[in-house]
Amino acid sequence: MTATETVLGAPAERREGREKVTGTARYAAEYDAPGRAQAWPVSAAVARGRVTGVDTAAALALPGVVAVLTHENAPRLADPEDPTLAVLQSPHVPHRGWFVGLVVAETLEAARAGAGAVRITYETEGHDVTLTASHPEAYVPETANGGFPSVTEQGDPDGAFDSSATRLDVEYRTPPLHNHPMEPHSSTAQWAGDRLTVHSSSQGSTAVRAELARMFGLPEDRITVRAEHVGGGFGSKGTPRVDVVLAAMAARLTDRPVTVALPRRYLPAVVGHRAPTLHRLRLGAGTDGRLTSLVHEVTTQTSRVKEFVEQAAVPARVMYAAPALRTLHRVVRLDVPTPSWMRAPGECPGMYALESAVDELAAELGVDPVEWRIRNEPETEPDSGKPFSSRHLVECLREGARRFGWEDRDPRPRSRTAGPLLVGSGVAAATYPVMVSPCVASARALPDGGFLVRVNATDIGTGARTVLAQIAADALGTRLDRVRVEVADSGIGFAPMAGGSSGTASWGWAVHEACVRLTGLLAGHSGPLPDEGITADADTSGTADAESPFARHAFGAHFAEVTVDTVSGEVRVTRLLGVFAAGRILNPRTARSQFIGGMTMGLGMALTEDSTMDPAFGDFAESDLASYHVPAHADVAALEAHWLDEDDGHLNPMGSKGIGEIGIVGSAAAVGNAVHHATGIRFRELPLTPDRVLTGLLEHEHPAGMLGV
């Protein structure tokens, strides 16, 4: 191992890679114990109502079935902070798919058979699951997700729009989307007296322990939550989910370890989803192409169980210089599953609409879309007026244009063909906020010359173990192979979840501080180390979460090339390029993985991912990977991720910004803008499936009234 591999910025291999490829990495459903039982949930079959009868006799008569939990016999729990966790506590059914039972059995097969044998009767109520922009019950919430104000306004956006030389008033819409991690939500729970140990597929064990303590009426120190390996989450595991509550309840009732692994087809109803969003954008510009007015209004939905408002208009408060600006969120309570976080919540759908609309405006003005974005670059953050800690969007656009060969692009739609294929290219900008939370960590120098770093981080496939070891080695001035890292155990101490692109910044800050303190202790120590070593602790409360005088964001630019088949309507992305400015890149190998992972999710959002809410049954029609289409290898051609060397001293000791989510932001818009360039048609609803595109092509060739003639 060379010296360069001991410091930040080196492409170190993932520490857990061998465990994963050899199958020795254990996930939440794989922790066996004597007497462990398996459980299978029973889902409500009505869109709204209440359970009036439960017949478990047939289920209990099946071989291997141990118990059936319903609202009639499940342990009584205290009210959770998150109402979606209050399962089996009442006969109320707020939406289809809400769990109304749990069958515990000796085997998974017996549990599944038992769940099928449970008979539930219901009293149904009228339901409403259809989102419209004109819904009579739409309201403006106090805040949107993340605590952002629902409404902001500067200047006179309506007056400025009306007096603008060029005006654009358009609507965009995105459908419900689902996270679908490779590992479904799973938990294994075991009681020992009044002590509870849980292995849970979660993005943060601190939050899981706190919620379990509240619901089961236990001190937190009697609960241990571990999440050693997590097979993806994309936000859906960012909060405790029903699997961990069900497992703990079943384990208590049966007095044996119980594993609950949610069947994939149940996930859309119980672990959150990206809510559909309806966007209206009004953009005004002067004769010089500069914005005079920007209005972004969003209508979305939430459930009657819990309010969650996708903050999709927030990116418009960051991106472009507009003297008059208004953003607005409206939400409708419907009888639907509760929406939640999905990779880059708010920024992902919001920037799709915004970046598509500004592309339309640039075309209307006859200005190159890259040049238009540069021309409308703000000097300070438009919403807050704060100076940016660093903002290199212009550099990302220029570097991306150079790498992509943008100057050779003929701006005229339908200017490139290849047989029946129309070829086009598009661009979109990206942004994501810098977020960081308090965390504790410890660093111990061992007598053998090694070091042990402990922090309750969760590695959901991002390479967190590896990067945290690099941060520690850099601060300690030692080789990377001398540092051992322990993560994913609530007993280590509090830590924020792996989400919001804030994990490395939060955990790494505490690790860095602990290692710096340990270095100071070692400098003042003489002689051999004691057998237990020397330990330094760190708690970044009050520093990591201190208010910053700067607006801190990562930025990027996406460029896409597509082909559109005029015979089938199929869209293929032949090239996708991203250039990002995300602070100091701590590990190029893991960073590239995160960037292209996000870009691939954006490609899926643009072309294949779609979920339909059935208005009659109140259920998502696409509930598995046979009907909800994520990109396959054949869908992903040339993906390139690059980044700028960005030095920002206003972030954290490492100088890093989050990179897990900015890759998806703007990716779908770049694809949509490329499809417009290829076809001359502006599709304002995702995904761009062959049926939708072919219909647009036919209508373009045969204007209204001519089809079928």
Question: Would you write up a description of this structure?
Answer:
The protein is α+β, with helices and mostly antiparallel strands and 709 residues long. The protein has 15 helices and 28 strands. Strands 3-5-1-14-11-12-13 form a 7-stranded mixed sheet.
Question: What's the layout of helices and strands?
Answer:
Blueprint (H helix, E strand, L loop, with lengths): L16 H6 L14 E7 L5 E7 L1 H4 L4 E5 L22 E2 L5 E7 L2 H10 L1 E6 L18 E2 L3 E2 L1 E4 L2 H6 L3 E9 L11 E7 L2 E6 L4 H12 L6 E4 L15 H13 L3 E4 L5 H4 L6 E9 L5 E13 L21 E10 L12 H19 L3 H7 L17 H12 L11 E3 L2 E13 L6 E6 L5 E4 L9 H13 L6 E4 L16 H21 L10 E6 L13 E13 L5 E11 L6 H20 L5 E2 L4 E2 L17 E6 L23 H13 L10 H12 L8
Parallel strand pairs: 1-14, 12-13, 16-17, 21-22, 25-28
Antiparallel strand pairs: 1-5, 2-4, 2-6, 3-5, 7-8, 9-17, 10-15, 11-12, 11-14, 15-16, 18-19, 19-24, 20-21, 20-23, 24-25, 26-27
Provide a compact summary of the structure:
By secondary structure, the protein is an alpha+beta fold.
* Strand elements, count: 28
Percent range for helical residues?
10-25%
Radius of gyration: 26 Å
Mean of residue pLDDT values? 96
Amino- and carboxy-terminal Cα gap = 73 Å
Give the biggest beta sheet.
Answer: 7 strands, mixed
Basic shape: globular
Q: Supply the number of helical segments.
A: 15
Uncertain segments: 1-5
Structural class: alpha+beta
Strand content: 15-25%
Give the neighbour order of strands across the main sheet: 3-5-1-14-11-12-13
